[in-house]
Amino acid sequence: MTGPVRLAVLCGSAATPSSTERLLRRAAAHAESLGARVDFFAGERLRLPLYGTPGAASDSAVLDLVTSVAAADGLLVGSPCYHGSVSGLLKNAFDHLEELRDRSAPYLDGRAVGCLVVGQGAQGPANALRALRDIVHALRGWPTPLGVTVDGPPLRAPADCELEVRLELVARQVVAFAEARRAVTGGVGRDVAAVSRSA
């Protein structure tokens, strides 16, 4: 498999721009600086029909998401912390990945996923990060060793060097794992033509 590493980025905040989106865009920029190609889902691109709604699987926005995730070598995923867990918007997007169950690499199989959560306080974001990592595991993905939590609005000052280092590291882990997996498998398992957009 040749060409740049491809990452799907999912932002689980209904607001745009949001603290979560700004955080993810910084991480995505680090991934791009490492040569990755990024497909960013935020705002309207992630406002999908409720999973299970008749006809939802053929909705163009759902097909766009599912096709991008199926073709991705890795993911960056972020959510605001809502009552100690991930947002319903993000959970609904994950539920739509059920469309990938019968693929050669079902769900997020074998792909690294960098997880990021923004919230107030220490306990809520930590709980939400744990929930996000559990969802990624359930979808057969590999959460990166580093997960990022932020207490309050991120990147309020350019001098927030510690946070920037963490964002760069999680992006580097996703890209490095994707490159290593490609080297071993030759890209086998990445289903570029997973879903027909004309379905």
TrEMBL record:
Keyword Acyltransferase: no
Classification via Pfam families: FMN_red
Alphabetical list of InterPro entries matching this protein: Flavoprotein-like_sf (IPR029039), FMN_Rdtase-like_dom (IPR005025), NAD(P)H-dep_FMN_reductase (IPR051814)
Key words, A-Z: Flavoprotein, FMN, Oxidoreductase
Residue span(s) of domain NADPH-dependent FMN reductase-like: 6-146
PANTHER family from the UniProt entry: FMN REDUCTASE (NADPH)
Protein name per the record: NAD(P)H-dependent oxidoreductase
Origin species: Kitasatospora arboriphila
